[in-house]
From TrEMBL:
Keywords: Amino-acid biosynthesis, Aminotransferase, Histidine biosynthesis, Pyridoxal phosphate, Transferase. Its cofactor is pyridoxal 5'-phosphate. This is Histidinol-phosphate aminotransferase. It comes from Natrinema salaciae. The keyword Amino-acid biosynthesis applies. One of its GO terms (molecular function) is pyridoxal phosphate binding. The modification N6-(pyridoxal phosphate)lysine is found at residue 228. Its EC number is 2.6.1.9. It is an enzyme of class 2 (transferase). The gene is hisC.
Length: 365
């Protein structure tokens, strides 16, 4: 017996941690700083760390079935009903749930190129096809309704990433509305706001709920995560906000105990820790401005907690930087072999990354 034919499936390339890199290079982990996976340089919210410790003694019990208290806290944050919040094992889990709730064999899903790999992976798991719309580097990866509509062909799901990974570009809400109006009734527009806290733009939840001059609608969903601004990537907690009409589907598609009790306790503590989020967002804004001003190469304007840099050869530059103790993301796997992506770090980490990169660029000249 063998697995089914998985030749169309591409494995997710997760960034390697400091321990792994240090072991491979035979070096001390303290030599390294990792700015490769858009993690929070300030760590988790301190309140969440306390909540995780306090939950330790009760993990022999199953989590509460619907995570009612966290669902309510997230619902309050967005002023939606509890049923409109689909908690999941990270934003990735929420992407899976939206596929389970929509895609049947033969359907297609439209995703950005370059873009976050898991959209396409999830579609394939659910026997869907993957189609792409291009975001052009010459246009600074600009996102608008027209670019997506040119590629659209009755796809069941259309993924928008705002801010976009890896470029940091965003899409105006008016364009999301135009897209939702122009696509079929059976198409759901998914606005992935994994990096939403770092951007100046309002959330597309306004479109779902009919706020800020928009009409309420049943064909837009929003993805959010606790991995970035809340610093909880390791506990795996994310969610989708869906239209009211979609509420019933969650119970039918979610995995039993969609999020762990540790994740839920941590999330509940973190969601009230505005100070930690504000500090994190402030650091990211300063870091990306510093990188744009001081890197000796083109740095795209970004609304995320990372910047994309045009370095000529991303693989060579990332390797050289890693040798010098700074781990960044080579963007070859995004189809951008000339680029690296650098996560916004603390002041000290950002300054070290910029000095190291400029050093490497000077030696390659
Ligand atoms: N969307 C985008 C655009 C991402 O970059 C990521 C993480 N890299 C996710 C979703 C999922 O994040 P998580 O599963 O950690 O919530």
């Amino acid at each position: 017996m063998q697995p089914r034919d998985l030749s169309d499936h591409v494995a997710y390339e997760a960034g390697r941690g400091i321990e792994e890199v240090a072991r491979e290079l035979g070096r001390d982990p303290s030599d390294f700083v990792k700015l490769a996976s858009n993690e929070n340089p300030h760590g988790p919210s301190p309140a969440a760390a306390v909540a995780i410790r306090e939950t330790a003694s009760s993990v022999s019990s199953y989590p509460k079935a619907v995570h009612a208290d966290l669902r309510s806290a997230v619902a309050d944050r967005w002023e939606v009903t509890d049923e409109q919040v689909w908690l999941a094992n990270g934003g990735d889990g929420a992407i899976d749930y939206l596929h389970r709730a929509t895609v049947v064999p033969g359907d297609t899903v439209l995703v950005p190129d370059p873009g976050f790999a898991y959209y396409g992976m999830s579609s394939r798991f659910h026997h869907g096809g993957v189609r792409e719309y291009g975001l052009e580097r010459e246009d600074d990866f600009a996102q608008d309704a027209e670019t997506v509509l040119e590629a659209y062909d009755g796809d069941r799901l259309v993924f928008l990433t705002s801010p976009h990974n890896p470029s940091g570009s965003t899409i105006p809400l008016a364009d999301v509305e135009t897209l939702a109006d122009a696509t079929d009734d059976e198409t759901l527009i998914v606005v992935d706001e994994a990096y939403g806290e770092f951007a100046d733009r309002d959330s597309a939840v306004a479109l779902i709920e009919g706020r800020d001059g928009f009409e309420a609608r049943d064909d837009v969903a929003v993805l959010r995560t606790f991995s970035k601004a809340y610093g909880l990537a390791g506990v795996r907690l994310g969610y989708a906000v869906v239209p009211d009409e979609w509420s019933d589907a969650y119970a039918r598609v979610n995995t039993p105990f969609a999020a762990s009790e540790l994740a839920c306790r941590a999330g509940l503590a973190a969601i009230d820790d505005d100070e930690h989020v504000e500090r994190t967002v402030g650091t990211a804004r300063e870091s990306r401005a510093y990188m744009r001003e001081n890197v000796d190469a083109h740095v795209w304007e970004s609304e995320g907690n990372f910047v994309l840099v045009d370095v000529g050869d991303g693989s060579v530059v990332a390797d050289e930087m890693q040798e010098r103790g700074v781990i960044v993301r080579d963007c070859s796997s995004f189809g951008l072999p000339g680029c690296i992506r650098i996560t916004c770090g603390t002041d000290e980490e950002t300054e070290r990354a910029v000095a190291t990169l400029n050093d490497v660029l000077a030696t390659l000249d």
